[in-house]
Design a protein that fits this description.
The complex is a heterodimer of chains A (441) and B (313). Chain A has 441 residues and is of the alpha/beta class. Chain A has 2 domains: 227 residues, D-Maltodextrin-Binding Protein, domain 2 (3-Layer(aba) Sandwich), CATH 3.40.190; 199 residues, Periplasmic binding protein-like II (D-Maltodextrin-Binding Protein, domain 2). In chain A, 44% of the residues lie in helices and 14% in strands. Chain A is built from 22 helices and 11 strands. In chain A, α4 packs across α17, α12 crosses α21 and α13 packs across α22. The longest helix of chain A has 18 residues. Chain A is globular. Chain B is mainly α and 313 residues long. Chain B has 2 domains: 54 residues, no CATH class; 237 residues, MetI-like (MetI-like fold). Chain B has a two-stranded antiparallel sheet. The termini of chain B are far apart. In chain B, 34% of the residues are buried. Classes of the chains: A alpha/beta (441), B mainly alpha (313). At the A-B interface, α6, α7 and α21 of A face loops of B.
């Protein structure tokens, strides 16, 4: 397996724009970044956490399951105890906004998915002063991943689990047909058409189209890959053009010709399972699915799967999806919570997080290590994809935007709207949201 | 002086009398025992109502708590004018009317069928009531699997009749709402069955026997005797189920998320999306109050009908 070079990551250009931004925000020093392997850790202070019980609101899924196996180490090393309050993933954000806006003070810590950071920011602690005070090793974070915890120049969450969407493909099927790994969506479509066997339920690409956040993300991906941005600098929807129509047309073709029959009924887990059980040639999905593919009980493709960065069209990109750890502004034990974050994001804890099957790490020193690469068969694809990861629209209205993406994408793929109607209708709705939010004059 | 005496003595007497009355009161201990529960209930029920009524007149977005302000009826005007409202109220009414009608007809048929002595009647009745014990979310998850394209039991069964087993029953406008109605019928017909069976068993048998002696056919007995006698119970059952169906949320969220497009977006989901997707508590509260008012109108209509019938009888 090829080792990822941190220097490659640093040289990829993703560091400089972000670090410049962070420097301007006062989070990073303007000096050149230190090499990650020399990254120091912030000094831990067990006196602050000793005897404390910290309540952490978290997802109830494999992430929490993995964390539970090694979180007791916190008690041994820091003298405090962490109580995980696990909430089903589809209701976590509801619980968070209720708890935060109600200022209940019931949690010391929260795992916050990045698109919710702007909306939750009024209720989260600004961690910037603590970062500066304790010399938190910011320069060991992949900068674009670090940005996920920053809103309007303030750090509200420390990124601990970066996710990007990568391409999963059946190496054996492509090899048999001597088809190279596609680098554009059009190539992928052609390869899928050639390799699929729809009569025997081998679909070209596992993708979902029901009204669901992931379907909205799929439409976002195609719109951006065809060379557009969702919004211009004046917060106007910027994709109602020929490329936008072409992107929507492509999504419709994917749904009609290479997606599983019944794609409108598949859910997120079903897509991953379809690929794992050998029913699809390709899958474009979050890298957090890798374990389901390589080690899942259902998987029959563990030794047949390949990983690649996302295809492009006008440009290659992947949506960034980073989980961060934040402290509610009304947390009962903010200092102890901060000590926990420092402990939780040390290199050693990050390795435990990865090895527990919870996800990846945003730390360069971890990504650059042999230990990580031995654990993660997709590490090379993930590292390459991190270079081209792009953030979603950073607005407090993100959920409204994604809801509209879901609605229009499901109507497009169901054949209720033409590609042009989809794009024009979506643009009108997004402009209305931006106008209501006061972004447009 | 006498005046002073009166002034000092009278309150003492009044106090004495009040205490005596309180001591003698038979209802006071009852009220005292009830008080804690009453206070808690009123606080739990009343506070959210008052709070949501207040926020329904405000521009109140959770993501911008500092911009909270009173805006009068704007949220209600926005709600009524919103195309989403028209869509979701239509979906809700279609769902409520179809589901409750089917549940009533099936529940009545089952109750009539089971309302007799036969071997294993206890087992049959218990089996018929089983879905009632499942929570809506469990039923929702169950039906997601049952309807799943490819290996779901329902598409597999329908494939016996020539339908593609990969057909996404929850993914097309034509089938998504009927599929949810079917699920709701499975889940809540037992309620209708239970209520109507209890009603049938409490009917005066002499009236039915008299009709039989007069030579009435079973259909005539059902139409002319049983149903009129059952009518108050039927109205109660329809009111309860109608109000429930009008507020249905969990199963829609789990099965379709409102899609495809907005084909299954019910009014409760509209309120949810406003509150937890747009974080717009003001508009969500206005929609919630509109739901409350509509449900109130619906239930007042049925209660009035029920009262009229009782007056007639």
């Amino acid at each position: 397996m090829q080792r990822i070079s941190r220097r490659r990551l640093l040289a990829s250009g993703l560091v400089l724009p972000s670090s410049a931004y962070l420097s301007s925000a006062g989070v990073l020093p303007a000096a050149p970044l230190a090499l990650a392997q020399d990254a120091a850790e912030a000094t831990l202070n067990p006196d602050v956490t000793s005897g404390k019980e910290l309540y952490l609101l978290s997802w109830d899924n494999y992430k929490a399951t993995g964390m539970e196996t090694w979180l007791p180490d916190f008690e041994q090393e820091m003298g405090g105890r962490v109580v995980l309050d696990k909430v089903a993933s589809n209701s976590l954000q509801d619980r968070q906004i209720v708890s935060l806006s109600g200022r209940t003070g019931e949690y010391d810590l929260m795992t916050v998915d990045e698109p919710y950071m702007p909306a939750f920011s009024p209720y989260l602690m600004d961690l910037t002063p603590l970062i500066e005070r304790d010399g938190f090793p910011v320069d060991d974070w992949v900068p674009i991943m670090w940005d996920a915890g920053v809103y309007e120049g303030k750090v509200y969450g420390i990124p601990f689990d970066p996710n990007v969407q990568i391409l999963y493909y059946r190496q054996d099927l492509l090899d048999a047909l001597e088809i190279p790994v596609p680098t554009t969506w059009t190539e992928l479509y052609d390869a899928a058409m050639a390799a699929q066997d729809r009569d025997n339920e081998l679909w070209g690409m596992a993708i979902m189209t029901k009204r669901d956040p992931q379907t909205g993300i799929n439409l976002w991906t195609f719109i951006n890959a065809w060379g557009n941005e969702m919004f211009d600098e004046n917060h106007q929807a910027a994709f109602a053009n020929d490329q936008g129509y072409a992107a929507a047309e492509f999504f419709k073709q994917v749904a009609d010709n290479i997606a599983p029959a019944g794609h409108a009924g598949y859910d997120y887990a079903g897509i991953s399972d379809a690929f794992a059980t050998g029913k699809a040639v390709f899958m474009y999905n979050w890298a957090s699915n890798t374990l389901n593919i390589t080690e899942g009980e259902l998987s029959v493709v563990a030794d047949k799967v390949g990983f690649a960065p996302p295809p492009g069209e006008e440009r290659a990109l992947s949506m960034r999806g980073v989980w961060t750890m934040g402290i509610p502004a009304d947390a009962p034990n903010p200092e102890a919570a901060w000590e926990f974050i420092k402990w939780f994001t040390t290199q050693e804890s990050m390795f435990k997080y990865i090895e527990g099957g919870s996800g990846k790490s945003p730390r360069l020193s971890v990504l650059d290590s042999e230990r990580f690469q031995e654990t993660s068969p997709d590490s090379e694809a993930v590292a390459a994809t991190m270079k081209i990861a792009e953030e979603r629209p950073i607005y407090k209205e993100y959920e409204e935007i994604n809801t509209q993406l879901q609605i229009f994408a499901s109507q497009l793929t169901a054949g209720e709207l033409t590609p042009q109607e989809t794009i024009d209708g979506l643009a009108a709705e997004l402009n209305a949201i931006m106008q209501a939010g006061g972004y447009q004059q | 002086m006498a005046g002073y005496e009166v002034a000092t003595v009278r309150p003492a007497r009044a106090e004495d009398s009040l205490l005596r009355r309180l001591r003698r009161s038979r209802t006071l201990p009852g009220y005292l025992f009830l008080a804690p529960a009453l206070i808690v209930t009123v606080a739990i029920m009343l506070y959210p109502l008052v709070f949501s009524l207040q926020t329904s007149f405000e521009s109140y977005q959770l993501a911008r708590p500092e911009e909270r302000e009173f805006i009068g009826l704007d949220n209600y005007l926005w709600t009524i004018q919103s195309p989403n409202f028209l869509n979701s109220i239509t979906v809700t009414l279609v769902f409520t009317a179809a589901a409750v009608t089917l549940e009533f007809l099936l529940g009545l048929a089952l109750a009539l069928l089971v309302n007799r002595e036969f071997r294993g009647q206890g087992l049959v009745r218990t089996m018929l009531m089983l879905p009632l014990f499942l929570t809506p979310s469990v039923v929702g998850l169950l039906f997601v699997r049952l309807y799943y394209p490819g290996d779901g039991l329902v598409p597999l069964f329908l494939s016996l009749f020539g339908l593609d087993n990969n057909f996404p029953l929850l993914g097309t406008r034509a089938t998504a709402l009927p599929a949810i109605i079917l699920m709701d019928v499975w889940r809540t017909t037992p309620f209708m069955f239970l209520v109507l069976l209890a009603g049938l068993q409490s009917l005066p048998q002499e009236v039915i026997e008299a009709a039989q002696i007069d030579g009435a056919s079973p259909w005539q007995i059902l139409k002319g005797v049983t149903l009129p006698l059952l009518m108050p119970l039927i109205l109660v059952a329809l009111t309860i189920r109608g109000m429930d169906a009008f507020r249905e949320f969990d199963t829609f969220m789990l099965l379709t998320g409102g899609g495809p497009g907005q084909a299954t977006e019910v009014i409760s989901m509209m309120a949810y999306i406003l509150a937890f997707r747009a974080y717009d508590i003001g508009r969500a509260s206005a929609v919630a109050w509109v739901i409350l008012i509509l449900v109130l109108i619906f239930s007042v209509f049925f209660v009035k009908k029920l009262r009229d019938m009782q007056m007639e009888s």
